[in-house]
Amino acid sequence: MQGGNFSSAAEFILIGFSTFPHLQLMFFLLFLLMYLFTLLGNLLIMATVWREHSLHTPMYLFLCALSISEILYTFAVIPRMLADLLSTDHSIALRACASQMFFSFTFGFTHSFLLTVMGYDRYVAICHPLRYNVLMSPRGCACLVAWSWAGGSVIGLVVTVAIFQLTFCGSNDIHHFVCHVQALLKLACGENVSILAMGLGLVCIAALLGCCLLILLSYAFIVATILKIPSAEGRHKAFSTCVSHLTVVIEHYGFASVIYLKPKGPQSLEIDTLMGITYTVLTPFLSPIIFSLRNKDLKIAMKKTFLSKL
């Protein structure tokens, strides 16, 4: 399939792990364990919130929505990656490639929007506690979650449609382990490829930076309010409700910046693959651990709900 026009190609070839032939079995076992742990951790969080009535608050509603987006994101990417690690056939159908891109972008950006919503929730809880029940009413929370999912879906649709209306020519080898935008843009030909690449980059970076700036603004007000609390115990109690969210935000945007803000230039396949793993496998793996260990109320509820029955 060399040298042809692949705008209607039946398949692409994912070659992301081809540079690690002797490590593929180890990668498979490691990523499988991390994937199962990610699923288990998020399901435990959802089950705990559902069973413990004291956690039926907006913050934990958003945490459940975040867990759902994380489960769906990993399901869109990791099972296919695990299959490729055990198989010699790394081909992926065009429609499957488009579907993977759509769902990974949809759930990935939904995750970012939900983190922003959770930052707003912490801002209202600490800076405007008397108005919290009004501003974070059940209907208002449902709308915030719905808009987060809608925003993620719009970005996923825009990116996928823009990429797959391009003409692909030359090799059909995707230098990644998923249908990655930048890897597919390298296979595209035409006068508008560079313009489209710049446009998609601006859309993704603007969405991520917009969410990040809103979170930073929320925490700027939160810190200013906490510093006005006279007692050290009160300051510690107020800030402790934000620690898990803030840690996940740093982790999420830290790894996202590696992917979207890395300098332009030639990158080895090994580096691209390892950078992709951090965001695809490591970030979802760490999130439920952070929320479970750094959130005191959730940790107590998990022990009460599950460990007490052992």
TrEMBL record:
It holds the Pfam family 7tm_4. The lineage of its organism: Eukaryota, Metazoa, Chordata, Craniata, Vertebrata. PANTHER family: OLFACTORY RECEPTOR (PTHR26453). Keywords: Cell membrane, Disulfide bond, G-protein coupled receptor, Membrane, Olfaction, Receptor, Sensory transduction, Transducer, Transmembrane, Transmembrane helix. It comes from the Eukaryota. It is found in: Cell membrane. The chain crosses the membrane at residues 25-47, 59-78, 98-120, 141-164, 195-227, 239-261, 273-293. GO terms for cellular component: plasma membrane. This is G-protein coupled receptors family 1 profile domain-containing protein. It is a multi-pass membrane protein. The keyword Transmembrane helix applies. Odorant receptor. Putative odorant or sperm cell receptor. Residues 41-291 form the G-protein coupled receptors family 1 profile domain.
